[in-house]
Amino acid sequence: MSARILNGNEIRDQIKSEVSAELKQLQESGIRPGLAVILVGNNPASEIYTRNKVKSCESLGIYSERLILPETTKTEELLIRVEELNRREEIDGILVQLPLPSQVDSKRVLLAVDPQKDVDGFHPVNLGNLLSQRPGLVPCTPAGILEILKRSGIPIEGQRAVVIGRSDIVGKPVALLLMHHNATVTICHSRTRDLPAVCREGDILVAALGKAGMVTAQYVKPGATVIDVGISQLTQLADVERFFSGNAKRMEEFEKKGATLIGDVDPASVMPVAGAITPVPGGVGPLTIAMLMVNTVRAARLRRAAYPAPVPS
Ligand code: NDP
Fold this sequence. Notes:
Distance between the termini: 69 Å
CATH superfamily of the largest domain: NAD(P)-binding Rossmann-like Domain
Largest sheet: 6 strands, parallel
Bound molecules: NADPH dihydro-nicotinamide-adenine-dinucleotide phosphate
Strand order of the largest sheet: 1-11-8-7-5-6
Oligomer: single chain
CATH architecture of the largest domain: 3-Layer(aba) Sandwich
């Protein structure tokens, strides 16, 4: 038996068409949501991520702009830019692409983003809202994971869920969301004893540890749903052969590009055991951008409802 593939691209398309319908409605009331993406420096992955985010906005008709700042940018300069965007009425969402260069105090910068415009959901106010189940902006990747589970008809309530990873961006918020949907949740990390045995308790296993192909069949309960959040690049032939031998498409891709992507899960090992699995690429990744679009529209609604335009006297 082989696991059912949970296709993130299809779910992304569903969500984007829902966002598109909502945007039309907003347009009728004269509102066009706007997103500003800040990129500092020359990180090639960040360059691609931010370009894709802006492209996705354009395809939906969300106003967007990308602010590109030099690698040498100091914390104070970045804070000034964030403050400017905080004040601009037509900007509903501000996203500071991480990682920032080492001289920048990332925490200070993220704290400076107006929580109402914090479409990444990383501000402590939004994380607090999530914790206490108040309306706010939820981090995109965790929100996307919940969409995959719900829209694929995977039961959450009463299930045992195991999350590997406790970052503020993925592990902790996805654990909270699963708990709020009445799963019984265990969070694992690098100090967890006998990780495979703990993981095997999960009806749902979320792997967000950033270790290429580490999760093998021995981590997976037969029939479990496995959500693979990790994104790593394999650039050595030996690694590609280890994970993808016999996979002509992957070997060809590696020959052409010199690299291929893998998640935290070893797909060849896990596929025969799991009940369902998200692929890499094409699983969680597409949802992250889709949920950014959702959050931008949500931010526009929340903020503009909270501060309605002054009634002309
Ligand atoms: P972090 O590095 O911030 O966190 C990794 C977590 O995994 C930590 O809690 C760490 O434990 C734990 N961990 C690391 N190694 C092990 C191990 N051997 N055994 C058990 N736990 C371990 O990563 P992020 O949460 O930011 O991202 C995780 C992965 O998800 C990355 O590959 C990233 O690229 C990817 N990602 C993908 C996204 C997408 O859109 N698909 C979006 C965001 C991230 P400890 O706390 O003890 O150090």
